[in-house]
Predict the 3D structure of the following.
Amino acid sequence: LLAVASGGGGYGDPLERNPGRVYRDFLLGLCSAATVRDLYGVVIGGESKALDLFATEERRRALRALRLQEGKPADPETVSAARPDPEALKRLDPIGDCLTRVEYSGEILYICSRCGHPYGGLRDDPKRHALMREVPITAFSEWNRYGLVAGVIALEFYCPGCALMIGVQVRRKGDPPLWDMSLRPPTGAGPCGA
């Protein structure tokens, strides 16, 4: 009998994770060399098994370029607004590590925290304005090869400006993306209530 349980995929874009922490996890046997290289973009030198920070930056740059190259508009019906002028923005609240709520020309918008790409207004799911890429579930863990590999896929969502990952969904093959993100702040007092 073999039983494997998973506690979820973690937080944030794997390419943003501290390379030293990824390397430590590798040395502890918590992730494979393939996972370190392909998911986190961390390069470990051959025989010495030393962390190569320069090669890691190059690898991460290449993986971001691949995201932009392979990504397709998540919702082709959605038209993204022009990038707001950074000098005219009033930053209101960060939403995790990848989105920021801003006020621009009297409107509340969500933008990429890294590059300022617009993700739409309050009532819009930011993923609709992202790039989306379908990847096999085995890309996340070698254990997934024992699952429903032929019937289940992962959808990754990226910023079209800088390739920062903003979300992942595991879906049945052929199912559309789930527009499940609502960032409309609650009404009332406080920094989030408008």
Observations:
- The chain has a mean pLDDT of 84.
- The first helix runs from residue 19 to 27.
- Residues 86-129 form one domain.
- Residues 131 and 177 are 12 Å apart (CA to CA).
